[in-house]
Amino acid sequence: MPDADHLHQSHPEIVKRLKRADGHLRSIVEMIEAGRPCLDIAQQLHAVEKAIGQAKKTLIQDHLDNCLEEVVGPLAREQRRPIDEFKEITKYL
């Protein structure tokens, strides 16, 4: 049973992206087994890699926006600056 504290609004979309990437990855395995050209395979692997990376980035940013905010929310504005800067830099993951 999922822990409600760890479910966020973005999770269904992340699951959807990962399931799509999973299906895509399975088709890439079939491409390899069928002897498709390496360029085609590399292009498809790149697409799956980007999809998974975006899912990871969304998950991390959502975690910071939700979970970390619960902890630092009560801090004074000046004390929050390092946390806010940390959250901002994660956009460059």
UniProtKB/TrEMBL annotation:
Q: Which GO terms describe its molecular function?
A: DNA binding; metal ion binding
Note the Pfam families from the entry.
Trns_repr_metal
Q: Which family does it belong to?
A: Belongs to the FrmR/RcnR family.
What name has this protein been given in UniProt?
A: DNA-binding transcriptional regulator, FrmR family
In terms of superkingdom, the source organism counts as Bacteria
Cited InterPro entries = Metal_Tscrpt_repr, Metal_Tscrpt_repr_sf
A GO BP entry is: negative regulation of DNA-templated transcription
